[in-house]
């Protein structure tokens, strides 16, 4: 009996070792470079730099984010350009035949308001270029005027939407998501990998991946 237990323990340990050996660590690739802006303009307040590698193969659908680099911009560096970044991603996440691009944004850390954005997506080809200089420009005054908050009643829950030009910030059930505007046959539609927000008039819908749609009614504008 004791010998049988010893054999069982031995084979259990052996199986664990084999399983660990057969699960290699993901192969990380680094993209590095700089984000710069017009020297005659300055950042003010607390800001956060975001650089994203996205799958931009489909023009009429949300661009899945492959990897994202985030860092606060130190107050002493607000007037300094360029800003340096290094973005790591899992090489196995990139598929042959797909298109990938880099983009950069600078948000107000406290409010989440988009302040600067790259107006050009930089195409990334694995194995060729790994250093990119990305220019960002101030969000237009028109887009700034569009920044307002909306409150929706969604069943028993409240959803708050911050309109940020081409983006919205969704607050729902103690979580926050940043969504990008995408094409829609009617109304306004924003999405990321986890959630879709659509609205038309006082009607709205929130749908999380793999779940049913949540119907919402506009309660008030919070501005």
What attributes characterize this protein structure?
223 residues, mainly beta, Immunoglobulin-like, Lipocalin, 2 domains, eight-stranded antiparallel β-barrel, globular
Can you characterise this structure?
The chain is mainly β. Helix content is 11%, strand content 50%. The chain has 2 helices and 17 strands. The protein has an 8-stranded antiparallel beta barrel with strand order 10-11-12-13-14-15-16-17. Strands 2, 3, 5, 6, 7 and 9 form a 6-stranded antiparallel sheet that branches. Strands 4-1-8 form a 3-stranded mixed sheet, with no helix packed on it. The protein is globular and about 50 Å long. The chain starts with a helix and ends with a strand. Mean pLDDT is 80; it is low at 2-11.
Largest sheet: 8 strands, antiparallel, barrel
Q: What would CATH call the architecture of the largest domain?
A: Sandwich
Strand order of the largest sheet: 10-11-12-13-14-15-16-17
SSE series: HEEEEEEEEEHEEEEEEEE
Task: State the share of residues found in helices, binned by percent.
Answer: 10-25%
- Write down the overall geometry: globular
Tell me the count of domains. 2
* Radius of gyration from CA coordinates: 22 Å
CATH topology of the largest domain: Immunoglobulin-like
Distance between the termini: 75 Å
The number of distinct β-strands equals: 17
The number of helices is 2
- What is the oligomer described by this structure? single chain
Low-confidence regions: 2-11
Mean pLDDT: 80
Strand content: over 45%
What top-tier CATH class of the largest domain fits best? Mainly Beta
- Classification by helices and strands: mainly beta
């Amino acid at each position: 009996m004791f010998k049988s237990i010893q054999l069982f323990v031995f084979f259990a340990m052996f199986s664990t070792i084999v399983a660990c050996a057969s699960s290699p660590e993901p192969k990380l690739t680094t993209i590095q470079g700089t984000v710069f802006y017009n020297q005659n303009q300055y950042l003010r307040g607390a800001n956060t730099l975001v650089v994203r590698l996205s799958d931009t193969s489909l023009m009429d659908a949300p661009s899945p984010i492959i990897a994202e680099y985030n860092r606060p911009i130190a107050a002493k560096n607000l007037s300094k350009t360029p800003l340096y970044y290094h973005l790591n991603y899992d090489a196995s996440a990139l598929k042959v035949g797909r298109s990938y691009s880099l983009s950069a944004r600078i948000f107000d850390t406290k409010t989440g308001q988009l302040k600067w954005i790259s107006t050009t997506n930089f195409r990334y080809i694995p194995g060729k270029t790994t250093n990119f200089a990305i220019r960002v420009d101030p969000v237009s005054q028109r887009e700034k005027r569009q920044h307002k908050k909306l409150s929706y009643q969604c069943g028993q829950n409240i959803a708050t939407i911050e309109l940020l030009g081409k983006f919205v910030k969704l607050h729902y059930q103690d979580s926050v998501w940043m969504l990008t505007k995408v094409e829609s046959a009617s109304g306004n539609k924003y999405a990321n990998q986890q959630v879709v927000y659509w609205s038309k008039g006082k009607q709205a819908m929130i749908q999380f991946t793999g779940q049913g749609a949540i119907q919402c009614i506009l309660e008030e504008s919070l501005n």
